[in-house]
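User: Some background: our group keeps a shared notebook of sequences we're curious about, and every so often someone picks one and asks for a predicted structure to add to the entry. Today it's my turn. The entry only has the sequence so far, pasted here. Could you supply the structure so I can complete it?
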Amino acid sequence: MDDLVTARLLLHPLNVSEAERVLTGEPDGAARWAPGYPAEGDASAARRFLATCANTGDPRPFGTYEIRRREDGLTIGGVDFHGRPDESGGVTIGYGLIPSAHGRGYATEALRALLSFARAHGVSSVEGDTDHDNLASQHVMTAVGLRLVAENERLKYFKITWKDTAETTDPRTQGAQPA
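Assistant: Of course. Here's the predicted structure to add to the notebook entry:
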């Protein structure tokens, strides 16, 4: 599977050996990780991806992606689907960046690309959640078109739904092109 390409980023779909390296924290000779990568969220996504591969097969293209800067090739975080679309066409997503990459619009750019990709592949809705105090993540989700739909004492839940997944004219979800 090809990388998804945006103006400043490459979203690289992990394979099993790459996910295993994320868990051990030891890149191979080809991987270029920025200091602080992988974070706990990246390890959690790698574990979920590997468990899915073991239980039901490789979920790609609905798997885990490393977020790499195009300018230097360094991996600065991750974005992932928490599995294949469900029976109604919905998926759940997650994302995270190393602290030194915060505040530069990378998470918004990566999430827009993932939403565009999901919509182009027939997904009808995308959900995500964040802690109440994670205002930056809440801002990213609303910036790409997800809306607050529920909350509990710990989390806020966001969602976007498309009626016609064949059309990708929503400017908030544009920007991803396969490499």
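Suggested note for the entry: The chain has four helices and nine strands. Confidence is low (pLDDT under 50) at residues 166-179.
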